[in-house]
Amino acid sequence: MSDESDDLSPGWDAISGALESLYPGQEPRHFGTVISYQLGGSDPLDGISVYRSEESRPHWHFVTFGFSELYAKESTDPDVSGYGFELTFRLACATDASEPPMWALNFLQNLARYVFKTGNVFEDGHWMTANGPIALNENTPICSMGFAEDPRLLALDTPNGRLKFIQVVGLTAEEEEAAKRWSTRKLLDVLLPFMPLWITDLHRESLMSNSAVATQVMDGLRVDGSSQGYTYVDVLRIDMKKRLLRKSLIQVTLGARQVAQLHELLPLRLPFGRPFTVAGPEFQLVFQPAGQSGVAVDGAAMTIALPSITEFLRIVQAKEGRYQMAGLDEVEWHIQKTLITNPEGEVVATYG
């Protein structure tokens, strides 16, 4: 970049400075966006830089530019730059690899599209399913993601506010289940000795088959319950239907796969005195442990108080249909089939 443009990109310069300190003298492979997202382009990120690292094992280190404020300060929070983070991703490569794979760039842009569309941000300890292999045309068991602060890039103060470098860590389906049931961050700590720097290896087997890992996870669940207090979903609607001489009927629409997740996670939250939140693009549903059943709706947010989860688990099934619980007859659960599609829009799996 020219000196003139450097003066107009203090956020970009701060990130580049941190990377220069980590990789002194290395010229990154930079992949910029041709048409800006603000001008109608399809890629939200302004660019992605890729560095070659030999630490622990040969790998590519991807770093995004675009979640934070790279140019002028536009957000109202002076302490936080944009969304408050940039993503990083470490991908194992062959010793003689000369170029990073293009699928990884598209993968990071897809994560950016999710953030820019929903406003949901990634933080240390989050997880997210990829609904299929994270790399197209690769025979890989890696189909999910954990998120942790990059072990080599510390939080950064820029002229536009503070940002963190959040690393995407590829997980298998079994590891995702462990993350959901226990704690993503604690699971990543358990995995770290077996995947240094949390380098994603498309060809590794699930570490849940390692007896030392499995034992630590089971011990953690027994002591901690689940620290996973939320899940993001694509399907969640809350509709109020007026009824003559009776309370309004509250219709809650969820996908069957999300109900299956609730069956797994509610027993690890509410009996431990912890709430659980389901967050959708427009609505939010909170399950709250309480002495007696109750429901409250405040705009797009709904709270359900449950003294016990037994009735919910018995009545509301992960199968297409309509369900009502005794004691909460003003709530009707509409459960839809969950269709998993590939990037071409083809249905590859159906739940419910």
UniProtKB/TrEMBL annotation:
This is Suppressor of fused domain protein. One of its GO terms (cellular component) is cytoplasm. It comes from the Bacteria. InterPro entries: SUFU-like_domain, SUFU_N, Suppressor_of_fused, Suppressor_of_fused_bac. Residues 41-205 form the Suppressor of fused-like domain. SUPFAM superfamilies: Suppressor of Fused, N-terminal domain. It holds the Pfam family SUFU.
